[in-house]
Amino acid sequence: MSETPPLPSYGELLSLVGELRSELAQVRAELTAARAEIAELKAENAGLRAENAELKRRLGMNSKNSSKPPSSHGRAKPTSLRKPSERGPGT
Predict the structure, then answer these.
(1) How many whole angstroms from its chain centre is CA 10?
(2) How many domains does the chain have?
(3) Domain for residue 17, yes or no?
């Protein structure tokens, strides 16, 4: 059979408790910082989602569903059906 390791002394236990308290304080500080960063990122994400929705709404607008006149619809101007003359100008 294997032997059980000896129990730590009172001094060793006190030292271990001190180390664990220090580590716990560090982990709590990191957790607080992480929570603050998460809250900041959530707020930024909400703002970006709202901006994205507004841009999508504006992108879907045309003269039929906005206050813009049809002339600003962005259509290409019709090209002339006339063929260009072979003569130069003034001849």
Answers:
(1) 52
(2) 1
(3) yes
Residue 27 token pair:
């982990």
The Cα 72–Cα 69 span in angstroms is 6
Tokens of 47: 């703002």
Burial of 63 (0-12, 13-18, 19+ CB in 10 A): middle
Residue 80 forms part of a structural domain: no
Q: How far apart are CA 45 and CA 38, in angstroms?
A: 10
Decide: helix, strand or coil at residue 20: helix
Question: Around 48, how many Cα atoms within 13 Å sit in the side-chain half-sphere?
Answer: 6
Kindly state whether residue 37 falls inside one of the protein's structural domains. yes
3-state class (DSSP) for residue 81: coil
pLDDT tens readout for residues 34-79: 999 999 999 999 999 999 999 998 888 776 777 777 666 666 667 7
